[in-house]
Structures are given as structure tokens and as C-alpha cells.
TrEMBL record:
Keyword Oxidoreductase assigned: no
Native source organism of the sequence: Poecilia reticulata (Guppy)
InterPro entries associated with the record: UDP-glycosyltransferase, UDP_glucos_trans, UDP_glycos_trans_CS
Protein name: UDP-glucuronosyltransferase
Listed transmembrane segments: 486-507
Subcellular location, record wording: Membrane
Chief localisation class: membrane
Signal peptide residues on this chain, from the entry's feature table: 1-21
Membrane topology: Single-pass membrane protein
């Protein structure tokens, strides 16, 4: 009774305070992460909040000159955009053209090399904020109410701690859920929760469970060596006392994970983890006239939409010719987002564009299939509109994402380095002609839309809630206690690995 009363009082306080809006500080991010964050920030502004985004002098995607409704807090970094692009091209080249032809040892050596470079760049970014007296002074005098971060660049937790701000995180994943598990205490029993990037599903046989355990443990070890150790040293130096970054991250009030049960497999949860996959999705708008004409000319056969995402604009001439030859054999009309030279084998049914209104095309009644690199943003647009997919995964989480879609029967994947014009053509024909793909993706679409509020509204609700209700002072974080205990359970579950899932749940029931 008393508890209920105090919750009521808190809610009342919220109502009073919310009429004023709050000041939200946003940590810098990059690429598709920034694309994902913008709609949330727009909605926060709509609700009367003041949004200030930290923006580095070098970024591939963030641009402080772009007209927008939020404010920017620019800071200088000792890096050029060229450096960033070079690192990205290295990662891309490794993932696309080298990895498939290397042994595991060579892969790990190269991977750590890239990870170390990435860490160096992250530290330079952080220097630009933490070691700049004017910026720190501005942040301290900014009287912010909350820090909102996509944790791809470290430092947000340190600043939240220094400024004494509640912290809300928005992320798609960390490798092997390291951040979510180690810092956020999210349980991930390796017997049925596949590690992100492991390309496993929730249905694993014994050897797959074993490799899942090995994947978790090896990644944890490497991430500790290459990420947590240097970050801890950095934080300790700044704060002047031994500091654990993971502990600071663990103080986050809300974790907004950008997936949902249309995409993810069932897994144990904590109450401060919210699943908001599809934040950027929206209904389709009418197409530009020229594109609409081309789409209508497809007749009953319909169209295929093809994009390899915002980061990969061209491929080698040889690959482009092979892809074009595959597309030329389809009865559909094809709209291909591609900025390279026009391939010689391009069929009369295919048009290439520098840019396509992807969401509007996917929402068009004539769209039969989507050929995608398997980024979460594109996958979510396809789920939202119910379009079956053909995956050509390239780097990062993309192969793992496509494994999810294949496991749910909504996609077929082909391998970038090993596909032929026939295998790509057959994959597209399969997802269009075998009705089960359309049915399955429609089922996912139903799950996606079947929630009390849109993912964007839910994300904003929890951001509002975390500072308005002062619950960073311990209101909901009672759950961290439960989390710690479940954490112990997930260790035990390593030993229970060989047990079938139902028996496992039965045991946990005690
Ligand atoms: C940033 O945005 C401005 C205004 O839209 C534009 O003129 C400029 O070219 C952009 N800069 C980059 C690097 O994209
Ligand atoms: C893509 O285009 C860029 C710039 O035009 C070029 O440097 C790069 O080599 C091209 N990539 C491939 C795979 O052809
Ligand atoms: C497709 O690839 C095969 C070899 O895999 C080749 O013989 C054939 O000519 C190609 N088809 C087209 C239309 O280019």
C-alpha cells in the first residue's frame, strides 16, 4: 500500500515536471547508429525537450551544418575524416575480400589489429571532450538532466558519472553481449542464447552449444584485454582513483535495445532492458513520378528492391557484372542502389540509382523481394512492410542478422565471395515463388506491429521516465539485485549446457 502511494506521488511529480521539458545531452556516434538516433531525438524535441548533441570535428555521418532542430556542441579531435574513412575501408576490405580466405589465426591477428586502431581513434575522440577545459566547463554549466548514448564510442559513462547524470543507452548489440551481460547484468545462458556474431540460433545441438560457450568466453577475454583494460586505465587517470568502466556503464538506468521479438530469439530479460527494434520505421510515402512509372511498368511480376546499405556504394567490376547478370534473368523489374560504373551485363529490367527511397519502395504494393546486405535498419524496414529478403551479408553483425531471418523462414542468404549469377537469381526466385517466405515475414510483421505503442514512442517514454521519476536514485534499479543473482545462474548454466532447454527451465524454476 505504502509503495503504491509513493509511486503515485512520484508519478504526480513527473506530471508536474514534464510540462517544463528537460535538457538532454547526447553522446557522439557514427554511421547507421546516428541514422537510428535521429528519429528519437526529433521525437524528444516534439515533446518539448531541449536536445544537445556532442559532435566531433571529424565524422563520416554527423554534420553540424545540417539544418536540424537540436543543438550541437562541437569539439575538436586530433583526427581527420580521412583517418576514419581509412579505418572503415580497412574493416570493409578485410570483411569482404580477405576473411573468407584466411585461417582462424590470421583472422584473429587482423581483427585485433583493427580493434587496436579503433581503440586509438576512440581515445582521441574522448580526449577531445574530457581533456578540453572549455568543453568540460560548458558541459558542467549546461545543467543537463540526462545523458543519452549509443555506446559505440567509450566515455559516455565517465561523463555521466562526472556530471552526475542519469544514463540511458540505446544499442543494437555489443560483441557476445559483453556490455549487456558484464555491465548490465543481463543473463545470457549459453545453452539457448546465441552470442551476437556467433551465427548461431536458439536451436543448438551439443557442438553448437559448446562453440557458443567458447565464443562467449574467448570474446570476454579479448574484450577485457583490448577494450576494458585501456579504458579502465584512462578513466582511473582522469578520476584519480581506480575506476572500473564496466561498473559505470552498469549504472545506466535504461537500456534500449534496438531489436524485438520479430527479429530476436526468446531470452531472459531484466526490467530495465527495453526492446525497441524498428525505431526508424514509418509508413511509405508516394514515390517520385519517374520511379513510380518504372514500378508500374512491372505489371503483375512486380519489383525487386536492391541496396547494399549506406556504407557500401560500389563493388568490383567483376562482381557488379555477375550481379547484373543475375538480375537480368528475373521476370521482375529491379531498382538497384549502386554508385559504381554501369555494369556491361545490366539487363533492360534493371535500373541503377545513386539513391533510392528505400522505405517507400519496400512499402509499395508491387514489391516482391528485397536484396539486402543485412543491416538491422534495412531488415526492420522489410519486416515492417512484410517483404521477404535475400541477404548478401558483408561485415559486422550482418551475417548474424541474416541467420536470424533465415531461422525465421523470412530470408535466403548467398555468400558475397562465392555467389554466382545462378545462385543469386535462384535465391530471389525462391523467396518470391515459395509462398512460405512471404507468410513468415508477414507473421514477423504482425509481431512487429502488435505492441501497445510504437518503438519510437516507447524509447521516448523510457527516456522521459528515467529523469522525470528520478529513478536513477534507485527506483527501478532494485532489479540490478535480481540481475546479479541471475548472473550467477548463467555461470551455472554452462554446466547445464548439455540439458535440453525444457529441463533447463524446469531446474531454474526451483
Ligand atoms: C554538411 O551540411 C551542409 C548543409 O546541409 C552541406 O552544405 C555540407 O556539404 C555538409 N558537409 C558534409 C561533409 O557532408
Ligand atoms: C569503389 O570506389 C572507390 C572510389 O571511387 C574506389 O577507391 C574503390 O576502389 C572502389 N571499390 C571497389 C571494390 O571497386
Ligand atoms: C552465369 O554464370 C555462368 C557460370 O557460372 C556463366 O556460364 C553464364 O554465362 C553466366 N550467365 C550470364 C547471363 O552471364
Amino acid at each position: 500500500m505504502e509503495l503504491r502511494l509513493s509511486v503515485c506521488v512520484l508519478l504526480l511529480l513527473c506530471a508536474v515536471k514534464s510540462s517544463n521539458g528537460g535538457k538532454i545531452l547526447v553522446w557522439y556516434t557514427e554511421a547507421s547508429h546516428w541514422i537510428n538516433m535521429k528519429p528519437v531525438l526529433e521525437t524528444l524535441v516534439d515533446r518539448g525537450h531541449q536536445v544537445t548533441v556532442l559532435i566531433p570535428s571529424a565524422s563520416m555521418f554527423m554534420n553540424s551544418s545540417e539544418p536540424s532542430r537540436f543543438q550541437y556542441e562541437p569539439f575538436d579531435v586530433d583526427i581527420s575524416v580521412k583517418d576514419l574513412e581509412r579505418l572503415f575501408q580497412d574493416v570493409l576490405h578485410f570483411s569482404l575480400y580477405e576473411m573468407d580466405f584466411m585461417n582462424p589465426y590470421e583472422i584473429s591477428v587482423k581483427f585485433f589489429d583493427l580493434m587496436k586502431n579503433n581503440m586509438k581513434i576512440s581515445v582521441k575522440f574522448l580526449d577531445g571532450v574530457v581533456k578540453s577545459k572549455p568543453i568540460m566547463k560548458k558541459l558542467k554549466e549546461g545543467n543537463y538532466d540526462l545523458l543519452f548514448a549509443d555506446p559505440i564510442y567509450p566515455g559516455y559513462d565517465l561523463i555521466a558519472d562526472i556530471l552526475g547524470l542519469p544514463l540511458v543507452l540505446s544499442l543494437r548489440f555489443s560483441i557476445a553481449h559483453n556490455l549487456e551481460r558484464m555491465c548490465g547484468q543481463l543473463p545470457a545462458p549459453p545453452s539457448f542464447v546465441p552470442a551476437v556474431m556467433s551465427k548461431l540460433t536458439d536451436k543448438m545441438d551439443f557442438s553448437e552449444r559448446l562453440s557458443n560457450v567458447l565464443f562467449y568466453t574467448s570474446q570476454d577475454f579479448l574484450i577485457r584485454q583490448f577494450m576494458w583494460k585501456p579504458i579502465d586505465e584512462y578513466y582511473s587517470e582522469i578520476k584519480g582513483t581506480p575506476t572500473s568502466a564496466c561498473e559505470l556503464v552498469g549504472k545506466a538506468d535504461i537500456w534500449l535495445l534496438r531489436t524485438y521479438w520479430d527479429f530476436d530469439f526468446p531470452r531472459p530479460l531484466l526490467p530495465n532492458f527495453k526492446f525497441v527494434g524498428g525505431i526508424h520505421c514509418k509508413p511509405a510515402k508516394p514515390l517520385p513520378e519517374e520511379i513510380e512509372k518504372f514500378v508500374q511498368s512491372s505489371g503483375d511480376a512486380g519489383i525487386v528492391v536492391f541496396s547494399l546499405g549506406s556504407m557500401v556504394k560500389n563493388v568490383s567490376t567483376e562482381k557488379a557484372n555477375m550481379i547484373a547478370a543475375a538480375l537480368a534473368q528475373l521476370p521482375q523489374k529491379v531498382l538497384w542502389r549502386y554508385s559504381g560504373q554501369k555494369p556491361q551485363t545490366l539487363g533492360s529490367n534493371t535500373r541503377i540509382y545513386d539513391w533510392i527511397p528505400q522505405n517507400d519502395l519496400l512499402g509499395h504494393a508491387k514489391t516482391k523481394a528485397f536484396i539486402t546486405h543485412g543491416g538491422t535498419n534495412g531488415i526492420y524496414e522489410a519486416i515492417y512492410h512484410g517483404v521477404p529478403m535475400v541477404g548478401i551479408p558483408m561485415f559486422g553483425d550482418q551475417p548474424d542478422n541474416m541467420v536470424h531471418m533465415e531461422a525465421k523462414g523470412a530470408a535466403v542468404s548467398v555468400k558475397f565471395n562465392f555467389m554466382t549469377n545462378e545462385s543469386l537469381r535462384d535465391a530471389v526466385n525462391t523467396v518470391i515463388n515459395d509462398k512460405s517466405y512471404k507468410e513468415n515475414v508477414m507473421r514477423l510483421s504482425k509481431i512487429h506491429h502488435d505492441r501497445p505503442m510504437s518503438p519510437r514512442d516507447e524509447a521516448v517514454f523510457w527516456i522521459d521516465f528515467s529523469f522525470l521519476c528520478c529513478f536513477h536514485q534507485g527506483f527501478l534499479r532494485e532489479c540490478a539485485f535480481v540481475g546479479e543473482h541471475l548472473g550467477a545462474f548463467s555461470c551455472i548454466s554452462v554446466f547445464l549446457l548439455f540439458l535440453p532447454q525444457t529441463v533447463y527451465f524446469y531446474l531454474i524454476g526451483f
